[in-house]
Amino acid sequence: MISGKQRTFGDVRPVALVTGSAKRVGRVIAQHLADCGYRIAVHANTSMDEAHCFAKSLKEQGTEASAFQADLTSEASIRDMVDKVHFYFGRIDVLVNSASIFFPTPLDELKTHDVESLFQVNTFSVLLCSRFVAQRMQEQATGGAIVNIADWSVVRPAKGFSAYIASKGVLVTLTRSLAIDLAAENPAIRVNAVLPGQVLLPEGSSDAKRQAAIDATLVKRMGEPEDIAQAVHFLVESPFVTGVCLPVDGGRTVFGGQFADASVH
């Protein structure tokens, strides 16, 4: 795998736009790419104070960075953000669609507004961000890489989250479709996805809940946001990989919860 610190276009460092990167997993992804030599466009909507602080921190580390605001439920706002990022940096080489919302959606409590909110942010914004960024990538001989952040639960859904899981499940098909469509415009544009396992537990989670999450993996540990960042970097830096949806879940999607004994028939 090529180190991000070696990836330059002449004297120009590549640029990564990471949505939802003011905090949580998106911030870790952005930090990892910065450490690998990327210039960073930090995105936030309502968390702009955190976004500006993070961009300032990156600058202090020697990374060119700036914060950009966009409401991902608005097509006009997304287009404006992409235009501003491109104007500021002069190019966009990587898009990581990390922004997401998450809440339970039990069927007997499900409201139309809940479904619309989940799909607007988790699904439609990914398509729109990818579409507008890809228009810029098409102009570049070097193309670019798009990485969508889906969810391991699209393979093994959990009870009570049907709308959320559906909004993330679409990303699997969307990733493959975008890989085909965008390669037809510029073969140097690649689209992949990461399907994270549980890397952040809700605040106040009990020790029992944490242990249950660990027991559900093959590797017998909790995932970390850095695990997701490393997978994103791999997909960004692998020029022969596209249309792939990569589970990063400690084996959770293939593990049934107990080890089978091949000697028992």
UniProtKB/TrEMBL annotation:
Transmembrane segments: none annotated. Its EC number is 1.1.1.100. It holds the Pfam family adh_short_C2. InterPro entries: NAD(P)-bd_dom_sf (IPR036291), SDR_fam (IPR002347). Gene3D superfamilies: NAD(P)-binding Rossmann-like Domain. It is an enzyme of class 1 (oxidoreductase). GO terms for molecular function: 3-oxoacyl-[acyl-carrier-protein] reductase (NADPH) activity. Keywords: Oxidoreductase. Belongs to the short-chain dehydrogenases/reductases (SDR) family. This is 3-oxoacyl-[acyl-carrier-protein] reductase FabG. It comes from Bremerella alba.
